[in-house]
Amino acid sequence: MKRIVPFLLSLLLAVAFLILEAGQVFSTNLLDGPWGGKWTSTCRTPGDNASVKLLIQVDPSTRVATVIMFQDVAPPAPSFSSMAVGKVEGDKIIIDSVSSGIPNGGSEMSFWLEGPMLLKGAYKNADDCGTFELRRDSNKRA
Fold first, then answer.
1. N or C terminus: fewer CB in 10 A for the chain?
2. How many domains does the chain have?
3. 3-state secondary structure of 15
4. CATH (domain of 108)
5. 41/130 Cα distance (integer angstroms)
6. Phi, psi dihedral angles at 23 (to 5 degrees)
C-alpha cells in the first residue's frame, strides 16, 4: 500500500500535466514574419536545392495564412515567386494545390515550427517533392 500511493500520485500529476499541455492553443503569431533558407528536392532530382525567402502573415481570427515565396535559382533555372493562401490547422500551415499560386496543377505544401527560429516544410506536386528548412530573417515575433 505504501508503494501504491506514491505511484498513483505521480501518475495523477503526469496525466494532469499532459491534459494542461493538450489544452494550450497554438499562437499563430509564432509563424508571422520573414523567413529565409532553402528548399531541397527529394524526388525528381534528389539533393537539388535553391535559396528561398518566405514572408508569412496569419490572420489569428480566421487562421488563414498568406505565404509569399521568392526563390533565387542559379542559371539556367529561372527565379520563381508565388503567393499561396493556406489554413493553420493545429500548429501547421496547410496549403492545397489549388491555393498554392503555382502554375501547372499547383503544389501541396505544409509548414511547421521546429522551434521559435526554425520553420520546416514539405511540398509535393506532379513533377517533384521535397522539403523546406528556413530560419527567421529577423527576431520579429520570435
1. N
2. 1
3. helix
4. 2.40.128.20
5. 4
6. -80, -10
pTM of the model: 0.75
Let me know if residue 141 belongs to a domain.
no
Cell of 101: 499560386
Domain encompassing residue 122: 28-136
d(CA 127, CA 56) in angstroms, rounded, equals 25
Q: Tell me the one-letter amino acid at 73.
A: V
Q: pLDDT digits over 41-88, tens only?
A: 999 888 888 889 999 999 999 999 999 998 877 666 667 788 999 999
DSSP character string of 87-101: EEETTEEEE-SGGG-
94 in Cβ contact with 67 (< 8 Å): no
What is the number of other CB atoms lying within 10 angstroms of the CB of residue 92?
18
Would you place residue 8 in the very low, low, confident or very high pLDDT band (cuts 50, 70, 90)? low
Whether residue 19 is contained in a domain is answered as no
Residue 103 CA to residue 138 CA, distance in Å, equals: 30
Task: For residue 69, count CB atoms less than 10 angstroms from its CB and return exposed for 0-12, middle for 13-18, buried for 19 or more.
Answer: buried
